[in-house]
């Protein structure tokens, strides 16, 4: 008895396959659109799983938390100050281990001994406390972790190596433990080699990834220049049996004692006078907090495309079912049951869905590496062989596809079979069935409108950022960065001597028109410090502080608005002078010239410097940020303490303006090596490439949104074209009669064009209404990746009215293109031929 249903099912599938082979255009369109939509959906399912859902790759990762000293309304983070970290380490009892690390990775100069000589290479480094790796549950695969004595201020100089560096620089030698290596010109003893870990990845600047290959003990001390600021991150492991809520309650109780011990932090308040809290979140939430909005936005866009594809398939299946009305009526008259007919139509849907899923899986394997390479977000490694995930998502998508195609098929079978037999192919023209197709097209238009609105807003914002004036001239400008860490460059004199020697050598090369140096390049990281006018201490706020050499302003092409530039006479023993940006001059001395005024760069001990020039504003962090006060100080006039801080945190950048195209990397490496062979060049690139790197995220999301919108628009045009073509085929007799009694061909053309535009207008209104929530959503997404200090995320967006106008125009043009051919076919109908056939 079981064999008969299987035989019947096999017959239905074979017949459905023959029917699909006879309609190659329909079959290719249905499978192709579903395959593309399902490929994108499966890819995003893998990304969402690996990024948002998969647990962190650490032992008992559910006990890992990020601990922050932060405003109450902030999203999950683990930013800490040195003071708060020390306080929590001394008083918090909920954690079995706690670890602290610098909030960003940096470069380190490693000298690799080779046969008879050696060479310097730049590697990523980071300082961590001895409890950092135990908190993560990661142990060295060779040697040991830092000891308590090694992590104290002034402790021994030791280092941990990554497995990657161990194998590449030390050939995987097991006797590396205890060996002395030279880092930043100083001797360090290797204590161990760490296991490969996701924590080998870090960021040296916003959006600039770096592989961490060296870990140094933090040796945290109140004397450290970053101790009082939120320059660290903290991870901790909950004790067995301690819940997240219990640990949070303990931190809440520690808040007031901390402020009593550290009253200076009471000044860190919001406009509503809210103080920082001790907050903790699961470490997984912290790790994905900057990715969540972008991944969810992409997933939403992909699901919208999938919905458009399913609506398109439903429309195609409805039209195909109505065209087969006479065939189905004949089968019913010969004894076929409605269940059998429904199974026949369902067989086609199952075959299409299966082929679409298979194509989607194939496309997903191709999309994953391409998307990972192009994405500005750090997508974890996606396992392409995820049988369970692929099976579940595939089954869900297949069920959704079959459901969308099954509903129209059921409506087709509700028709009157006798009416079908009497009227031949003129079947399915009831108001209800016509309404079903219209609803599907209107829904497609609405979905495509939302995606087109997203695309317009994103692309407009990208173009707006692209056209933003940087404040300098990037053409023919090359930059090279070096790291000047260690005792050899802890003072101003050796630092300036090295910089001057490199600049002298670079200036001797043909084709170099000018050269200068800065600590904190525009659109890169730089020092922020408390600065303000000496005569108005209430205006003292955190601003940007940059050390530069004379000639930096003209080399960069920054306009000099007033006063003079720095000169060689502004040396260590001369009067202390500064240049300030136009924004600083406007904010600090709005009603008079700033030339001759004094800027205070000190804290409790004043550090007064005279303003000798005002220069144009530049974007310090991203093209989307608002101008901030910037103070430019001569390298030679920086105190030893400031030089040590700056060299320890940030690279020094040489800016070289070239008159001709030549191998700039070679001449830069030669000049630096001649000045100090232990210093490698870390990064050489054009300034335009630097600008382009800050645009990677807006460009990526803009093009992704455009691709989704274009695909949805294409599906909508196909659906509208199919509906109008089918209506023309059903109404040929009516069209012939209209033309025979005097209707003009233009009237017939306008009739069907009007139908297409009416459906489009309905969907357009619904889509635009649903798009009103987009600006805030997209603004938040853009803000995550352009590092803006704008007052509102929506300030990053282009005009919403312009975006909606573009959306409406694009949709109307697509509707006209899809409606014209069927309408033209109707208008060119010969009435005599139709009526003679009747």
UniProtKB/TrEMBL annotation:
The keyword Cell membrane applies. This is ABC transporter permease. NCBIfam families: ADOP. Signal peptide: none annotated. It is found in: Cell membrane. GO terms for molecular function: transmembrane transporter activity. Belongs to the ABC-4 integral membrane protein family. It comes from Terriglobus albidus. InterPro entries: ABC3_permease_C, ADOP, MacB_PCD, Macrolide_Exporter_MacB.
